[in-house]
């Protein structure tokens, strides 16, 4: 059973946003109250309130009506590249802008075989060398075999928050982690499976089919 209601349209906030959101919201509320005593506090209250509103939007985590397919997109964004890999797999790289939902989802049902944090830099996600950025590498045991997915931090996104650990069981579309303020997610399709998406195409996590049936 997935962690979503298939027909729910509710909006929630992503797990892992408290260290960013709560201090900002609290400061905005405090300066708004101080404005009642001295209107000069409005110079702080207005931008802080706007920042809080922006963060609420950035960290939204909507429920989804899941798509159909063997492999669903793990991220909201735009397909940045599709590359054949030396071992026969195909890498589909999805660029996430700051305006996208930042919660990533399991592309298939299965078990989490491993979750590995790899230290690295913070180049913009569209840079060809961003493969060496800070990242979290996932491996899933699935009906299609081992599936690798990589969450990559970018110039703004400097924190990846995995929700699961090795050994966890996931349903297709389950929330598995958060990249704060976007960046990039790569998924590797097994040998013999062609991508159903093309470069420049928009994707929705848990909805867009990645593999060609």
What's the structural blueprint in terms of helices and strands?
Blueprint: E1 11-13, H1 18-35, H2 42-58, E2 60-62, E3 77-84, E4 90-96, E5 103-105, E6 110-118, E7 135-142, E8 145-152, E9 160-162, E10 169-170, E11 175-179, E12 183-189, E13 202-203
Antiparallel strand pairs: 1-2, 3-4, 3-13, 4-12, 5-11, 6-7, 6-10, 7-8, 8-12, 9-11
Helix pairs in contact: 1-2
Q: Can you describe this structure in just a few lines?
A:
The strands form 3 sheets. An 8-stranded antiparallel beta sheet has the order 10-6-7-8-12-4-3-13, with no helix packed on it. The protein has a 3-stranded antiparallel beta sheet with strand order 5-11-9, with no helix packed on it.
**Quick one: how many beta strands?**
13
What's the helix count? 2
Low-confidence parts: 1-10
Helix percentage range: 10-25%
Question: In sequence order, what are the helices and strands, one letter per element?
Answer: EHHEEEEEEEEEEEE
Biggest sheet descriptor: 8 strands, antiparallel
* Average of per-residue pLDDT values: 83
Which structural class best describes the helix and strand composition? alpha+beta
Give the overall silhouette: elongated
- How much of the sequence lies in strands comes to 25-35%
Straight-line distance between termini: 23 Å
Gyration radius, to the nearest Å?
19 Å
- Strands in their spatial order, largest beta sheet: 10-6-7-8-12-4-3-13
